[in-house]
Amino acid sequence: MALVFGLVADFGGDLRAARAAAAVAAASGPLAAGPHRIAPHPPLPWTDPSGRVELSVVPRGVGSGTALDGDRPRTALTAAEYTALGRALYDLLRAMHGYRAAAVGWNAEPSVDPAELRAARAADPHAWGDDGLVLADTVLAGLGGDDRFLFFAPGFSHLPWRGVRPSSLTADPAP
What we know:
Number of helices: 4
Strand content: 15-25%
Number of domains: 2
Structural class: alpha+beta
Largest sheet: 7 strands, antiparallel
Distance between the termini: 26 Å
Number of strands: 9
Strand order of the largest sheet: 4-5-1-6-7-9-8
């Protein structure tokens, strides 16, 4: 199973906004991850069968079994370096517009689907998934709001991201 570390953003049906965000990501250049500078793969906007548009920004060589990396050797990062890379992706997200929900992390796609968030909230009003979720303020209001969300960028709020913890996916020494 592939494990992808990156940024995923949901644009509803707005392909134009996703393409503009992809251009922002493509122009960003390499992202800092401690002493490493890691270029992202070309951003990947895609539309699902329902017309929902997502954009993925996936740094090269930091996932596990990621098809985009092919035979490229994996860059071993510590939890602190993944956290720095994640923060660089969040900084990149601050320059984007038109998305409804976004997150950075391992296989973040399910956490940015507003329909899935709505269903989770119906079952548990405190269910937001992982920390680091960014929502357009209009989406957050439509989901009933939550005082735990803080300002992220104009028009967007987030559950602050705590970063990556040491695990079998990081290059941290075993305890």
